[in-house]
Amino acid sequence: MPQTTTGRPASAAAPVRRRPKDRKAQIALVAAQAFSERGYHAVGVDDIAAALGISGPALYRHFPNKYALLVHAAMGTVGALRSASDAAAESDDPDRTPELQLDSVLRALIVTTVESRKTGGLYRWEGRYLRPDDRDLMRAEFVAVTQNVAGPLRELRPELTERESVILAAAALSVIGSITAHSAALANRKIEKLLLGTARGVLRCDLAAAPPATTTIDDPATQRGLAVTSKRELLLAEAVKIFHDRGYHESSIEEIGAAAGINASSVYRHFPSKADLLAAAFHRAADRLAMATAAALAASTDPDEALSRLSATYIDLAFTHPEVLSVYFSEIGNLPKQERTNLRNVQRLHVEEWVHLLTAVRPELSAVEARFLVHAALGQTLDVGRLLHFDTGAQARGRMQTLMLTVLHS
């Protein structure tokens, strides 16, 4: 038998390692999962390479840098939604009704989102780190997805204005995308059924007839009072604004201190690090929400009224300080693990208050199903709130509350 240079039979020689044909796709998937779970800045190229069992140089053969990975991953998630909804919207059947077209688009978006749940929310939060031209491209893709829902909706409901149809389409997309922001477990088929029924309910919503929001705290538009002078409070307020505008990693202690009117060394007297400042801002927001929630529950006489008051409370706080929600979802990964766990436990307890009330109002729902709906309702304030420009007027908040309660009761 022929021998190799090592003296072994040729048939026993070590097999030649070949590069998988789908290596680029594998890298993109692992990167998208890592960015979604831990945030863009917390993940290194070496982390992604190690997860795949390859070297850094091997990864660079496919992507020149980490930013290129982010672009590919973010565009891939929204691109998958665009492709799925485009395909569902197209039909050679001249007899297909707008209702059937709309249903087909919703089903396609739901299936795509469920299949990519671990990475599907990447474009929602990490897209903030894209450069302006790449961000514009991603937004254009999402606008096209929204129009794939809004177009047949306008045919089905000609009484809607174009803006109303876009708001309702965004609300339905928010319901579908909400599953990427939590990890509650439910069989895929049940998730798809729940999301489809809820999205349909949202698209039937009558925004024009939405009543003014239930008020549980003073209307933010009419609040008056003296400005806060505490340096600690000013630092927290300015930090959240700067984190929102520039991103956590692009912000500096010096910048935050200057915005609050103090120098960097003085900032460290209040907060040992930038991460401590971020965590304190989140805990302060959680405390405010807890107090407002307790007040709303104390003023309620039954679970249905409590849900109405809770939704109004959440909208009041979210619309008054919209940057807090945005920073929470996009920057919580920058906190130490224990702090992330603590804050997520606080969020979980808040969600469970809603779940308890919702299952009392709708006993046909399991606790897990109610949890999905609560997350979908809470997510409306950020996704649709942007379209409403976080207007604190009674009409805008009334529309927001109508959408939230529709999600819970659909």
Summarize the structure.
The protein has 410 residues and is mainly alpha-helical. Helices cover 68% and strands 0% of the residues.
**Largest beta sheet, briefly?**
none
Radius of gyration: 24 Å
First-residue to last-residue Cα separation: 74 Å
How would you name the oligomeric state of the polypeptide chains in this document? single chain
Q: Would you count the extended β strands for me?
A: 0
Arithmetic mean of pLDDT:
87
| Share in β-strands | under 5%
Region (Disordered): 1-20
InterPro entries: Homeodomain-like_sf, HTH-type_TetR-like_transc_reg, HTH_TetR
Pfam families: TetR_N
Organism: Rhodococcus oryzae
Would you mind describing this structure in some detail?
The protein is an all-alpha fold. It is 68% helix and 0% strand. It contains 18 helices and no strands. The N terminus is likely disordered. InterPro entries: Homeodomain-like_sf, HTH-type_TetR-like_transc_reg, HTH_TetR. It comes from Rhodococcus oryzae. Keywords: DNA-binding.
What secondary-structure arrangement, pairings included, does this model have?
Blueprint: H1 23-38, H2 45-52, H3 56-60, H4 66-89, H5 98-115, H6 122-125, H7 132-156, H8 162-177, H9 188-203, H10 231-246, H11 253-260, H12 264-270, H13 274-298, H14 303-320, H15 322-331, H16 337-361, H17 367-387, H18 394-409
Tags for this model:
Homeodomain-like_sf, TetR/AcrR family transcriptional regulator, DNA-binding, mainly alpha, 18 helices, 410 residues, HTH-type_TetR-like_transc_reg
